[in-house]
Write a structure and sequence with these properties.
This protein is of the alpha/beta class. It is about 35% helix and about 15% strand. The longest helix has 21 residues.
């Protein structure tokens, strides 16, 4: 049995620092929320007829949260897309937001 009061044991069991990430999550969420409250969407984006948030894996999870937060007041459809090829309906009036944690996803 592992003694979870032993920091060396924790580091052996959690080499990527997931515990630290979890402990920092509330502050990260609060910081993100505050930044969103201060954000002003440029006026040329307002003319879009729909929003497509695209990405793969866990990268697009943030897009799901954004969609859920915006949908109650959104004036245009917000769609999540996980495929590397954009759907045929995407045109000049579609705001496409690419989500990538690493910046090196094949889709980006």
């Amino acid at each position: 049995m592992t003694n979870l009061d032993d920091l060396n044991a924790i580091h052996r069991l959690d080499p990527n620092g997931m515990l630290t990430n979890l402990l920092e999550l509330p502050d990260q969420v609060e910081d993100g929320w505050n930044k969103v409250q201060e954000f002003a969407l440029p006026s040329h984006y307002i003319k879009h007829s729909n929003i497509l948030i695209t990405g793969s894996g866990s990268s697009v999870a943030v897009g799901e949260i954004v969609k859920d937060l915006l949908m109650p007041t959104a004036k245009v459809p917000i769609l999540i897309h996980r495929d590397g090829k954009l759907p045929d309906f995407v045109d000049a009036k579609t705001l496409v937001i690419g989500m990538s944690y690493t910046g090196s996803n094949r889709e980006m």
